[in-house]
Write a structure and sequence with these properties.
Keywords: Fertilization, Membrane, Transmembrane, Transmembrane helix. Belongs to the LHFP family. It comes from Ceuthmochares aereus. Helix 1 (8-29) packs antiparallel against helix 3 (95-119), helix 1 runs antiparallel to helix 6 (183-209) and helix 3 (95-119) packs antiparallel against helix 4. The protein is elongated and about 70 Å long. It has 228 residues and is an alpha+beta fold. 52% of the residues lie in helices and 14% in strands. The longest helix is centred in the last third of the chain and has 27 residues, at 183-209.
């Protein structure tokens, strides 16, 4: 018989697992890893000739994507174009970024699988006498290691030609040059920290769902058990 067990700790672990998976996925897909040095568009240069003020924009560069501004003939129309600059894996700008993409992708796939499984832990707490919480916590720890490897390798690719075109000639491995770090990089770091927090907190979720109070309510014949 399926017993639906919901506790504060197990629900918090489930929500954190889902948030972490989405945060890492969004960061990975974003082009806002590096914010390039300010560049005026051609239309803004025309404005300067006519006495207008210059409003530089900052192109952004991700692991495999980028955002840049395209100016049209009309001075009032400026479109920001975002999309992948690499159509294939081999076209990613740096070998270090290729490795980063692999490590992050593996870590994110594990996190997404754990987030999916975590939803069903309300009904199923163990498989083959193994606690799902403990297994998921172990997987989250492994995913966190993959994420760390990816984030460590990522700055080593700042010396590639693509990054130099955005960050200037002073850019090199682990040196930003004229660039600054975007929100996606910080989100990836924050998600990695939360991944390890989730891995540790999974043990608390397992303790909460197997407590004596839960066992007492199961023995009383309750199918829906909610504990604070």
């Amino acid at each position: 018989m399926c017993h639906v067990i919901v506790t504060c700790r197990s629900m918090l672990w489930t929500l954190l697992s889902i948030v972490v998976a989405f945060a890492e996925l969004i960061a990975f897909m974003s082009a806002d890893w590096l914010i390039g040095k300010a560049k005026p568009s051609s239309s803004e240069e025309v404005d300067n000739r006519t006495g207008g003020s210059q409003e530089p924009y900052h192109p952004t560069l991700g692991i495999y994507g980028r955002c840049t501004r395209i100016s049209h003939m009309q001075l009032s129309r400026r479109d920001t174009l975002c999309g992948p600059y690499a159509e294939t894996f081999s076209e990613i700008a740096s070998g270090f970024w290729q490795a980063t993409a692999i490590f992050l992708a593996v870590g994110i796939m594990i996190l997404c699988a754990v987030a999916f499984v975590s939803v069903f832990t309300m009904c199923v707490q163990s498989i083959m006498k193994k606690s799902i919480f403990n297994v998921c916590g172990l997987l989250q720890g492994i995913a966190g290691l993959f994420l760390i490897l990816g984030l460590i390798l990522y700055p080593a690719g700042w010396g590639c030609q693509k990054a130099i075109s955005y960050c200037g000639h002073y850019a090199s491995a682990y040196k930003l040059g004229d660039c600054s770090l975007g929100w996606a990089f910080y989100t990836a770091i924050g998600g990695t920290v939360l991944t390890f927090i989730c891995a540790v907190f999974s043990a608390q979720a397992e303790i909460a769902t197997s407590s004596d109070k839960v066992q007492e309510e199961i023995e009383e014949g309750k199918n829906l058990i909610c504990l604070l």
